[in-house]
Amino acid sequence: MQEKKFILVKAKPLISIITLNWNQTEITCQFLESTRKLLYKHYEVLVCDMGSAADPTLQIITGNYPNTRILKTDPCNDNGVNWAIKQAKGDFILLINNHTELTENTLDDLLAPFLTDKILGVTCPKIRSFHKKNEIQYAGYNAMNKLTGRKTIIGHKKEDKGQYDIPLYTHGAYSGAMMIRKTVIEQAGMLPRNFFIYFDDSDVSARILKNGYKILYQPKAVVYNRASLLPSEKSAINVYYRTRNRILFMRRNSNLLQFSIFLSFFFFLTIPATTTKFLIKRQFTHLQSFFKGIWWNVKMRAAA
Contact 78/50 with Cβ under 8 angstroms? Predict the structure, then answer.
């Protein structure tokens, strides 16, 4: 990595906190309440509303949350996060889900490693469950398995006994809680538009690493999360996007040999196993969504 890519970090850089809202104003306001206790005060909060049925503006303004702006966009126009990043004034961007809760030192602890590590592009906090306070949801990612197109979360659902309290470079950031240099976004690119949900963080992480930057898991920073980090099969739409994006990620981030091996695994093992599972459970809509996710990639490949 060339020295010209490095930048000096200001003593008190502005941090832009970006979160999305879509028909979850109450949850978003709970997140905004947690920003009141932040000890690092040089920040702005951008709430990007993705066309909610009820305008959240009045409720958020009434809450009088510090340093907060409301942005409105049509979810069909662009990736909401990318659109918000373009409006951000900060030297660093904290991408954070609205169903999280920040702790008072979150910004300080995520920012601190950038002051001494020139190759650092992203820092990620330890994520714990909001409902089970001592249960870990994220302590970094293991490397992506190029055979299966899957990656595993370090420490997921384990009791926090301090076993993941050492900072370490990790193989992927979680896009629902990550601080990134704005200049790194300019070099590596925005979050991918085609992914929508699932594997978007894997894709942007791969590009960040390819550009010579590192991703740091920073356990001193703790964020509490009200939702699950792992994909769900409760709805057919989740099956569709998880399948579609898994193949799309491998298309974009593996060489010809790796992709060929992945396709062999997928067609000879994944398809039969998944088909059998959904047939046994009589989840025919899920099965249809699974094949729609595959077909989307076939059409896109043919059109390329």
Answer: no
